[in-house]
Amino acid sequence: MSHWWQGYPWRMVQTNLREIDMADIDAETYAQQLADFGATVVTLNAGGIIASYPTRLDCQTQSPYLTGSSLRQIIDACHARGIRVIARMDFSKLRLPVYEKHPDWAYRDKDGQIVNYNGNVQTCPNGAYQKEKALEILREVLTTHPFDGVFCNMAGFLVVDYSGVYHGPCHCENCRRLFREQYGLEIPERDDPKNPDYKKYAAFKSACMKAQKQHLVETVRAVSPEIAINGVDYIRTESGAEINVPLWPYSASSNARQSAGPLRRRPADNASVDFMGFRYRESSVSASLLALRQWQNLANAGSVSLYIMGHLGNHKDQTALAASRPAFAFHQAHEALFAGLQSAARVLLVRRPVMARTDPEGYGWVRVLTESHVPFDEVKLPELTPELLTRYGTVLLPDVKQLASAQAAMLDGFAQNGGTVVATGAARGLACLGAEVTGCETGLMSTVFALTPEDEAAFPRSRAAHFIVPGDTLYTVRWSAAAKTCLRLVPEHPFGPPELCYCTETDDTPALGVTPYGQGRGVYIPWLAGSFYYREGFDNTLHFLQDVLFALCELPQLAPGLTPMVELTLCQKPGQLVVQFVNGSGVWGNSCFAPLPVQNITLRLPGVRAAKAAALRGGQTACRITGNNTILTLNVLNEYEAIVLEK
Predict the structure, then answer these.
(1) What is the pLDDT of residues 263-274, one digit of tens each?
(2) What SS3 state is found at 416?
(3) CATH class of segment(s) 11-89+127-155+198-338
(4) What is the pTM of this model?
(5) Around Cβ 334, how many Cβ atoms within 10 Å?
(6) With the CA atoms of 448, 451, 455 and 461 taken in that order, what torsion angle do they form, in degrees rounded to the nearest 10?
(7) Closest by Cα among 104, 111, 100 to 132
(8) 165: which residues sit within 8 A by CB, 6+ positions away?
(9) What is the per-residue pLDDT for 356?
(10) Residue 611 neighbours by CB under 8 Å, 6+ apart
(11) Domain boundary assignment for the chain
(12) Residue 127 DSSP SS3
């Protein structure tokens, strides 16, 4: 049975309605503005903290501003224009009067205090409100309004408020009792992965949220199987900004890749967040950044998504709307092309679960692959399957510290059958790597690796540098006899004063090892190469990793003459190959400006024999077949281009 969201042309506008917006909202105007913008899906506030409709339940607060069009009228007006409507629910907080009647529903810090933010009290996933009352609210919303989907905002064990204040793990009586019953322990006072009990607490939280999600799914499915559920039927993520947080320029690309998956069987709703951060919700980030995110969404997931405060008719700062329209219009004009597209990448980047919001090793590899024009997919470690691996020739594991035995066997089998596994950092349990991690050195200051004469042919880009800098962390390794190791370590040595800045010794510690394994091989780099590149950005690291990819792993170079500031993706459907370019040349430090035009691009596509090519955004393109390759040219790239090759 197919569902409405499968193959649906996903152009989302999330309108986070303030409570006052319901006072004068006009359903027909609201819906028509969405239609004029090209939206096919909208997310709007329904219930939880505030009920945007007349509720019969006393566990949520009804909005006092319901004098404009009703929620039902808004939904009907959207449906009349072919726009699907998703209910935004938020069970993370309660209004203070509701809390005062049910204090056991609240989160408590280690001192037993609640978090009261502007009269909204944070709740706990193990309290009766989230476990029981939230499901009652869902049933009421979905049985009284014809919503097409559900998105539950800020789900989980929240420890930070809107001001960025850290409050720590929940210590409410429900959490403490359940954790004692399951583990015989007290809840840690802080989120500290170094605490030996913290892994158990993390597992406890994960199990609680898994059970909560299952109950939510059962509740929604009982109402209708045609209601799309975020995290199940579609995946919502955000590319946003926050004050004092550095720009991650590939946020939308990476989020979209992970959410859509290589087969794109589910919609990826990566919301480009309009505002600068929680404190400046009225003010938009730069127009060029908003445009860049939408083109990245399109190139990596075939969908576009915008998130604003208020609605299209009363959003004062028009920056996001003007910047996002071109990508929405392009997707609308080429719906048929994007329907059914799948990735054509042959490289897979496996992302490990992380407790923090950043993954420097993963981010570094995203940069290296993107800036080397290597098309790749991303998958979260729990979603890795043997069937998925058959699509790829190379799999990258950036500091994937923990592998289940079944996952290790899967990856060893991939190498046994001819694949290449590349791992960095604390890789353990993989026979194909030919390496046993025995320890870890941290705090290194001046350690480097030096190329030997035997290394120079395999590391042509690094030859001129001679030394490769690993950063401050190095894992000690016992290598198998089959491993061929490269480079040699120059140990800690003086770096001041200048007269003493030399070292006259090296040892046998290598920078990496390559181990034949069945028909394939394992490549292990026992340091955090991706993290060092993400933090510092030097071509010393980039060139070394490009040598690993192109010389050792023998990946084809598709565009060696193209600036690293252009992102390249390859997608396919029967009879067609779609090449997409995203111009990131406007990113400079923490700013994003209009990109510079890139002239005269040449692309070599091995194994492709294309009869003709057409550029869809005004570029002039041509292709010719040379042997078993297609040589593709594009005269100029502005913000974005999509080229369709007929095979």
Answers:
(1) 899 999 999 999
(2) helix
(3) alpha beta
(4) 0.96
(5) 18
(6) 90
(7) 104
(8) none
(9) 61
(10) 646, 647
(11) 11-89+127-155+198-338, 343-552, 566-646
(12) coil
